[in-house]
Protein 1
Amino acid sequence: MKQRLLAWCLLLIATITATPAFAEQVLVAVAANFVPPFREIAIEFEAATNHNVRVAAGSSGNFYSQIKNGAPFDVFLSADMERPKLLEDEGLGVKDSCFTYAIGRLVLWSPNPDLIKGEETLRSKKFKRLAIANPKTAPYGLAAMQAMQKLELWESIQPKIVMGENLGQTMGFIESGNADVGFVALSQVLDPKIKGKGSLWDVPSNLHEPIKQDVILLTKGKDSQAAKALIEFMVGPQAKAIIARYGYELK
């Protein structure tokens, strides 16, 4: 009897030791372009900390509006610098917690391996539909518009444009055939399920403003150990290696 009781006590101690009392869940708003690498970062983070990550994907502009209206996110990984700074100024983000975690790259991509021949593809307009994300809510959509404006193509290409609310929807238009070409993030094209397929043009960075992507700890997450740990994890070597592998530049 005593041996059974001792064995039970040892098992209980082992269970408590293996499951830290501080394990929490963190709710993260992630800009659609960053979802592929963040999936991998979340796996590494959960394994290292035992915290649990819940992810919501969408456009930075829509997330900004949702957070202002009380959405319960702890951390916001935006595709721009402006919205996290606005949230900090408005008291919805923790002061001085904001920093640039990645600098994005814009590409023109098509699942057709013979379609894209660089800038000439845009100028020739030999495609039925061109997908871009909404420039008002998605920073990559804004960069795409700036690139086409600089190439003096924005007005003439309007009849061929189909607009997604975010980069996830924009990529969906291309993959489904509703658009045969589109502007997306390099990180999406480097997703293992797509990498190596189709044709692409790496849009020169001088055609648009830098896509500096900032993260911020939101006030709803200021007392969350999981949220604070994730912010710290984002600047560590494991996260940086994943971010670089998906084609982002590191500041």
Protein 2
Amino acid sequence: MRYRIVKQIIETGSFTKAAETLNMTQSAVSHAINSFEKELGFSIFHRLKAGVQLTQEGELLKGLIETMVITEDRLYNEVHAINAVEAGTLRVGSFATASSRILPQIMKIYDERYPNITVELIDSDYEIIKEKLEDGSIDIAVLEEKYIEKDYYKLPYLYDELMVVAPNTPLFQSKEKIEIGQIPDFPFIMPDNDQDTFLKQLLKNYNVAPNIKYRFQLLSTVFAMIEVGLGITMVSETALKTYKFDVIMIPIEPKLYRNVSLVALKSQLNSPVVKAFFSIAKSLKAKG
């Protein structure tokens, strides 16, 4: 427990806030830290008027403490397998568009069935998600096909055709398709998120260098800028379904697809919290 207390103090910057998060008294938190520091032989926190911060020695231990918390969570997950997934922690690594499009329905059902399971969602890019999966920092990853290794367990979940999103103007209304080599002919608005890495690599494979004029992190902003005629972009077909903008989608020639799967290390498949997640995902995929 003391490692979790240290982690919460680091994250909140306060003994008081850490105590509130952990449902403990401040004196219990202080006692735990004082006892830990006494055992270590040095202080890990500077006590300041505005809060606390790690000492130099504390900084050196930070990574190990975080690893201890993760290891402790994994231990409890295995212990609670006997109790039919009544408690535990599930860590999911995902990229921005998947977090909003793939995970919500799975998470909703997961929470209804297993209300005592804590789910931590980590948003990042593909490379970092893959690293976290392999070092055990997360249990499940949402990855595009090219990042998936042969020894991973994967559940293919999203197979989306990529389309050009363009202003609803006569210039584009007349186009039945856009050749991939024509992409540089138009100002390009690049989604500054996971799509950036994905699109750059895809276009590079076709030796296409887009004429990038703008970058925006939110897809809603990208679509709004396209609506007023500032350029085009490329997104998966279903990405536009949750938005209402006066834009049009045009097929790309040749057809291009984004293939996304839910992934876990095969060694983690016996974890009850992981099993439960994949069971729900499979049932939803079968329905949809």
Protein 3
Amino acid sequence: MHDQAQALRERVRARIGTAPGTTRVVAVTSGKGGVGKSNFSLNFAIALRNRGHSVLVFDADIGMANIDVLLGSPARYNLVHLLRKEKTIWEIIQEGPGGLRFIAGGSGFLDLLRLDEEQLEYFVTEVEKLHGHFDFVLFDTGAGLSKETARFITAADETIVVTTPEPTAVTDAYALIKMVSAGGEPVRFRLVINRVADEREGIQTADHFRRVAARFLGLDILPLGYVPDDQHVPKAVKKQVPLLHAYPHCPAAKGIDRIASSFLMEERTAAPAGIRGFLSRIRRIWG
């Protein structure tokens, strides 16, 4: 285990010497728990990686961090080790199946919310080292209406909101967007409808959500796509193997794959602020 961890750290550190590019920070969130947000985040990251992009998944789900469980790769180190200055940012990056890199949150994000100015500065300095070394950093945030989730959403370059066609899930997703928008910060939202019975239900749910958001919030929430309800998903969870690895040709995997394609093909008028922009906003919002 020690040799594997050492090899991973050496591979990650090797990226420091490469010419840095632009990192896009994406938050993935939901209005309530139980809609499949973390499972989507994980497999969405794999779909991006399958297209040649370097991706880091940051498990920012306070109190319910489970990306390492879904990967079947118990994290040797997590955010707590960074905040205690026991490990560097490079050393807490873990490698899961297929080479996907992730940072486990654990109880670390509860500690993060209580940082004093000096500790926050250390955290920012360490995380800033990631700038340019990954194409995408995905923050899998906590579900529901919380100030902590709102902070990550506001600081990210863009946010994917995951919901299901269930009325309570749709209502909570709308409430989340409304709460964040009320803060006055511009946020680029995109919508994913998970566990749809068929294409018609996915399209109808997304269209209704878009109309309501446009009418009452003045926002155009474009849908990225939908993911079919699929019994292969719970099977993959039980096996602790990502869906795109366990059942790459199942309907849900194909749905996530299409969403990744749509996401990459979208035109964006603004350049990403990246890790440095994200941390700058975090500093301001946390203050």
Protein 4
Amino acid sequence: MTAVPRVELQVRSPVAPIAWFTNPLDWRPIDRQILLGLLVLLAPGLIGLGLGLILLIAPKYLHLGLIGPLLALFGLHLLLMTGFVIAALRRRQRMDDWPAFEGFVIGSFMFTVFLTGYLTGTHFAEALLLTFLGILVVSTLGNVRRLIVAFYIGSAVLAVLAYGDVTRAWPAAPALTRPLVDADGNAVMGLILIRIALAVTVLAIARLAIGAVARWVERENLYREMSSVDGLTRLSNRRSFIERGESELSRARRFGDSPVACIMVDLDHFKKINDTHGHHAGDQVLVAASSILMHNRRQYDEVGRYGGEEFALLLPNTSAADALHVAERIRCEIAGTPVDVDGRRILMTASFGVAAYPSQEVTCLNDLLKAADKALYVAKETGRNRVCMEGMETPQP
């Protein structure tokens, strides 16, 4: 019996097409590089078109011995960039990044713009604007390390060109035989067309940069929120709460030990709620308790989820006695607010521990949290659903 050869099929994950109408920050690196390559095509294309128009309309202003090779260089740049883009479109089926392509995009753009700026004497105006606006776009779409290298190289080139301008070590605007103005002092039509094309290019690149930077800022704000806010209750998380507490204690010391109170809150029998009604019910109880805590805070108070079913309130400029009244008010509201889950009414209560700075046993935030937590422990051990304050002999029922 003849053995049947075994054929193994390798299934490659499909590569999504480039979604041109979405934000480029959401694209894969190689797709962003393709976009950069297409944008860079505008530089030699539009600048070369403008020089060509001047060559047709007013050739007497141009040094033909330099303009010819410069236009040929632009044509070569267009061909090479088009080839890279086509190759990248093929490679994106099997790779996510192509560093060599990105390096060519950045380097060729800077070379084309600076060379044209030097030859036409615009390296401190149009060339500088185009170069560093281009760097701004790459900062959101490309590799930051390559961008830093490009920035330093560009700065060095500008320094060299400035030296040449000051010392007259080489001729200024060698591609021009005379200034691009007529006898009346008006710019020639070719220069006007170049600047119109440049303005359109700058506006297009600026719009892309604004969109990318806006998404960047949006993501940074989201990451900052995720690092400081509890995902379920939308209260400050433990790290953020402690940072605020350190800040408030430091401020209190600067202003003569003004009082700062802390209230620790723990939902009673929360494990039983989860076991009896399910974790989704427990989540709704946590959200309901959080809402009550937020409703009873002042604008400058801090409310945080300290861990699990435990919460903490930081009350600046509040004495222990005032914090005790706040805790009792919240305790009554929690006990009188049942939570409806799937047609079932869940009753919840909470225990409270109160402490304040300054006091004999509280000199820092760690002491304040420990004192409030110790008072909370006493409240739970003496029957729950009550408020206990540091140093209080009899908890409030």
